[in-house]
Amino acid sequence: xxxxxxxxxxxxxxxxxxxxxxxxxxxxxxxxxxxxxxxxxxxxxxxxxxxxxxxxxxxxxxxxxxxxxxxxxxxxxxxxxxxxxxxxxxxxxxxxxxxxxxxxxxxxxxxxxxxxxxxxxxxxxxxxxxxxxxxxxx
Length: 138
Description:
alpha+beta; Hypothetical upf0131 protein ytfp; five-stranded mixed barrel; 3 helices; 20% helix; globular; AIG2-like_dom
């Protein structure tokens, strides 16, 4: 299933991994919201953790068709996410509905959320990013 990607951390425009992974591989990038998640600070990058009532701000990225498979593989590797899951993974790639910030249109997208063990550690000891916006963190 070729879904767009919701990015909320180092893959956003102006962040360190945007140009390395997305430049030349996208057809569209637009502001979007992931509802039902909060953001935690990680070691140089954030983690989205699914929590009712939270909202994470980011971008909805649509890949150009000819780059999709290569981009999916590269992002899984970057996010240390094994398709099918592995207990050592940092993230899990899940299908979630995000909302376009401009017009509120819901869109299914791939989202990298904290893997279960990581999410449990963050809930117990992590530093929450208030407002759910990595770009606006203080």
